[in-house]
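Lecture 7 notes: from sequence to structure.

We start with a single chain of 186 residues. Read the sequence below before looking at the structure.
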Amino acid sequence: MVQDLAGVAFSLGAAGRRTGGEGDEDGAYREAADQVRDAVRRLRSLLVEIYPPNLHEEGLEAALSDLMAKLEPRQIETSLTIAMPLELLGPDATALLYRAAQEALRNVAAHAEATRADVSLAERGGRAVLEVRDDGRGVDADLTSEGDGHFGLRALAGLAATMGATLALDSTPGGGTTLCLEVPIR
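Now the structure, written as tokens:
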């Protein structure tokens, strides 16, 4: 999609140059090309956010540490505990675990009003178990209700289900939130 959009931006720019201003008095071709180029930049940023290069190059532990470092400027203390060999995880499981931690930590930063977030990853009964726990204000833990602002969590639950994984959210008003993802190990 990124390459297709880049091609559209190139074509729009070329069309604007071919008309030499005729039929494009308001610079519509240029403006459209600029908008498409901006969309391409945003898509590339989104792709890096969803599956960052350091996840593949440096591994899950480094990628999780990078996610958690984004909470430090907000004065949210963090801890990361990995109690399993990461070599047990295939690329799909690694990407899902990363995505779940990313969504949970994004919610901690944006909504929880937390002072602490703890991330742990362990192997239990042939499954990788990721827990992201915060001490924030808590949320409605029903991931199935529509229109409640949990789009990212609902999408994550759907993705987990397609991989045979389970996602659960445990939360108490004023008592923090725990996101738990269990992923089968290959």
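The radius of gyration is 21 Å. Keep this in mind for problem set 3.
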